[in-house]
Amino acid sequence: MKLGITGSPTPTVIWTKKGKPIPRARTSNTIDCTTLELLKAHHGDTGNYLVIVENDHGRDFADIPFIIIDKCGPPEGPLEVSDVFADSC
Predict the structure, then answer these.
(1) Most CB within 10 Å of its CB: which of 16, 60, 70, 80?
(2) pLDDT band at 83 (very low <50, low <70, confident <90, very high)
(3) What is the Cα–Cα distance from 27 to 37, expressed in whole angstroms?
(4) Handedness of CA 13, 17, 23, 25 (dihedral sign)
(5) What is the pTM of this model?
């Protein structure tokens, strides 16, 4: 996730999920943008992420929903097959 930011002096940026730091995340900040990269993201990383941008003149924040799409895993069983006939199913 890459977000444009502005402020003078350059603001500090904090990313959190459920009020806590994100241990597997890599963040980087420049004068005009902040980036959050989730390393080895998986479906459990889905949720709202909070970014807080602050300097001497104020504070702003955004609550950003992330939806992580993962490839499907194997089906969980037992599976029950029904209504299968020789000419249709």
Answers:
(1) 16
(2) confident
(3) 6
(4) negative
(5) 0.73
The one-letter code for the residue type at 34 is T
* Cα distance between residue 60 and residue 49, in whole Å: 14
- In which residue are the tokens 């990313």 written? 15
**Residues 13-22: tens digit of each pLDDT:** 999 999 999 9
Task: For tokens 């909070």, name the residue.
Answer: 50
Got the DSSP string for 12-70? EEEEEETTB--TTEEEEE-SSEEEEEETT--GGG-EEEEEEEEETTEEEEEEEEE----
Percent of the chain with pLDDT over 90: 63
